[in-house]
Write a structure and sequence with these properties.
Layout (H helix, E strand, L loop, with lengths): L2 H16 L3 H20 L9 H12 L5 H20 L26 H9 L6 H16 L3 H5 L6 E2 L4 E5 L5 E5 L2 H19 L18 H14 L8 H14 L4 H8 L4 H22 L6
Antiparallel strand pairs: 1-2, 2-3
Helix pairs in contact: 1-2, 2-4, 5-6, 6-8, 6-10, 10-12, 11-12
């Protein structure tokens, strides 16, 4: 049985037995036809290829400027084909079982420029009760790098007045203390003195940030708030509350902050999670060098 017939039977099985979608089947066809052409070029086939042949195939893919995710997809298609062949007793074993998968690169988090952050923070009308609340929330988010769930979960006793810290309950109910800058601290104080009592009316809640109905702020509420101010500030990047957290971390590192300190402020259990922001900082430095250094090509 040649590769063309084997591939046809495999795809028929995937359709009938597993109900795979047409686009998935076409992706399998494309990837496995490529594998078949490679195996034919080295004098073998689906029936006879061994582990070494397939390892060489993966190595060749890695030289073709393909994304790790694309190589992983092709590797997965081959694995499924050879598992089916072994289960159908067309082969006595699956040669992809010990095949190394390429490591997928971690996506670098998107961040805002410092000028975009300044424009966003300046957008709320601080003479208005809701605007003052929004300014306090945005400044607090950028000053501390809190997750949005941590921000909306702040209570009125979270602020340590004496030392300028917030007590934050993060993932896994772990509590940490995070420093908060004077600008954010001043806005919180102004909001607590003037806006919050107006928004609450006669109601009493423990939440620090409240809605116009006197209830605790929610993630969804804040999502709409931040998107609205991004539009007002003319920010083209699709903005989310988490983007300010990414920007907080990257801007600190750009200005020379210690990685361990940023890890503690973000509440990351593993420093490897924080280290990704150093790559963002390096990319920015490379961009600046290429654009402005007199000996660069830019």
């Amino acid at each position: 049985m040649n590769d063309v017939e084997l591939l046809r039977q495999f795809l028929d099985n995937m359709l009938v037995e597993h109900g795979l979608a047409n686009n998935t089947l076409e992706a399998y066809r494309h990837d496995l036809e490529g594998l078949s052409h490679y195996l034919d070029s080295i004098g073998t086939s689906f029936l006879d290829a061994g582990h070494e042949n397939l390892s060489q195939w993966v190595a060749v893919l890695a030289t073709q400027n393909l994304a790790p995710a694309s190589i992983a997809r092709k590797r997965s298609a081959a694995g499924r084909l050879f598992r089916w062949m072994a289960a159908s007793e067309l082969r006595d074993h699956n040669p992809t079982e010990l095949l190394d998968s390429p490591k997928r690169g971690r996506r670098l988090p998107k961040t805002l420029s410092e000028s975009d952050v300044e424009a966003l923070l300046a957008a709320p009308d601080r003479q208005d009760d809701l605007g003052l609340r929004d300014a306090a929330m945005l400044e607090t988010l950028y000053a501390t790098g809190l997750r949005v769930s941590e921000l909306v979960g702040l209570t009125t006793d979270a602020l340590d007045e004496g030392y300028g810290f917030l007590r934050v309950v993060g993932k896994g109910d772990k509590e940490r203390v995070v420093p908060i800058g004077e600008v954010a601290l001043d806005l919180i104080h102004r909001y607590q003195r003037s806006s919050r009592p107006v928004l609450l009316g006669k109601r009493a809640v423990a939440d620090l940030f409240v809605t116009h109905r006197g209830k605790g702020m929610t993630r969804q509420n804040f999502w709409y708030i931040i998107r609205r101010y991004a539009l007002e500030a003319g920010i083209q990047t699709q903005l989310s509350p988490h983007l300010l957290r990414h920007s907080f971390a990257s801007h600190l590192l750009n200005h020379g902050a210690d990685l361990r300190g940023v890890q503690m402020m973000l509440g990351h259990a593993d420093i490897s999670t924080t280290e990704i922001y150093t790559h963002v900082a390096r990319e920015r430095l490379k961009d600046v060098h290429q654009r402005f250094h007199p000996r660069s090509d830019g």
